[in-house]
# Entry
Amino acid sequence: ELRQAVAQAKQAGGAAHSAMIAEKDAQMANLQQQLEQRNHEIIKMQGQLQDASSSAGAQASKLADEVAAVTKERNSLQNRFALVQQHVQQRNMGHAAKKLKGEVKLIRQAMGMLKQDYASTIKHCQGTLLKKISDYVSSHSVSIEQYRKEQKERKRLFNLVQQLKGNIRVFCRCRPLMPHEEREVVSFPEENTIAYMDENHGQLKSYEFEKVFKQTSTQGQVFTDVEELVTSALDGYNVCIFAYGQTGSGKTFTMEGSTEHKGINPRTLQTLFAQIGCVASLSLRASPPILPHCVRHFCTANQYYN
# Structure
């Protein structure tokens, strides 16, 4: 029984196992069929993809050819544009050069006219200037001749006046008191007269000179009365000015002076050279010169003691 039960169980189990196997086989067959369908679809899709790739490659090649053609055409257009631009520039330059040549021609014509006008104006001005110079020289020559006559007459009259004043003149100058001196011993009763009291004889003595300078007289006032002799020296006369007196009477101060108060000698030289400068300036402007020869002036200043 046991064996029978085992056999029955085996029989029952084998049937179930067979059914399961059959079911699995059916599933496997179904899956195999689906797999084949999928493989068929994949193969189909691979063909489509390959066709699409071939088509895309052809389109890409076509596009590349089109791009190359467009680039070539662009380069050609650029070259043509550069040639056209160069031609336009050359044409513009040629037009500008032609215009400049015309302007240069006009300028040259204007310069030629200006040269002619300039030459004519210069010639006219030269003629006018020469005429004026000639007129001026003529009138100036007359003026110079009149000046010579007047100068000669002035010289004669001036030195006549100096002779009438006296060829030898004696001036008297009284200096101020020194610090150690107490009182004045001289007086001036009249113009150009000096007096002093002679205590030994008890009488007033007076002396008259061509000119008397008081204690308050300045260096300029003293020089004014001898300044005319400078003109006489320039006129060709010998002139001598000297101071005489005892030590301390003021001779050196009168003749030499100081930096602030110049005496007769420096003032004479200043006046002498000033008058020479005026005559020389007039001589340079005269034709012929007023001074026909060089004039030399010799001046000496000496101091003698007894």
Summary: Strands lie at 171-173, 186-187, 193-198, 203-208, 211-213. The two ends are 207 Å apart (CA to CA).
